[in-house]
Prior knowledge:
Layout: H1 2-19, E1 45-49, H2 66-77, E2 82-86, H3 95-99, H4 103-112, E3 116-118, H5 130-136, E4 141-142
Parallel strand pairs: 1-2, 2-3, 3-4
Helix pairs in contact: 2-4
Amino acid sequence: xxxxxxxxxxxxxxxxxxxxxxxxxxxxxxxxxxxxxxxxxxxxxxxxxxxxxxxxxxxxxxxxxxxxxxxxxxxxxxxxxxxxxxxxxxxxxxxxxxxxxxxxxxxxxxxxxxxxxxxxxxxxxxxxxxxxxxxxxxxxxxxxxxxxxxxxxxxxxxxxxxxxxxx
Length: 167
């Protein structure tokens, strides 16, 4: 049973990696290479990050930072329209993030070119700071299940952006 679970995980990873190739650990945007991307106008790419925890710069081993993420988006955008989205937990985890209560991270995400984000549990680590994070973001941060004391959503649940003629 253990061997079949390992094999299933390896096969899933190979399938995902076969869709495209990206040198994700390259810190210099000029060295990020993109494999066979679809022809522009016919498709688009969605790049996703999650649980970045304020890693502005990666460790060049197992963690990439926003610097590399920006390079990857730039490389993809050269050949195909690209969306960059984050699933939350971006605002705390590293000293820089904690010192700025996540605001510095949002500024870096703005510069990175995020198109959408979501609220994660770590966006609540600093009391009453979520609204400031939402206001500072130059991209929509979404949430369909977080309400204020009056029962109103604190962020929009959905957003639409036109890309590659779709939207």
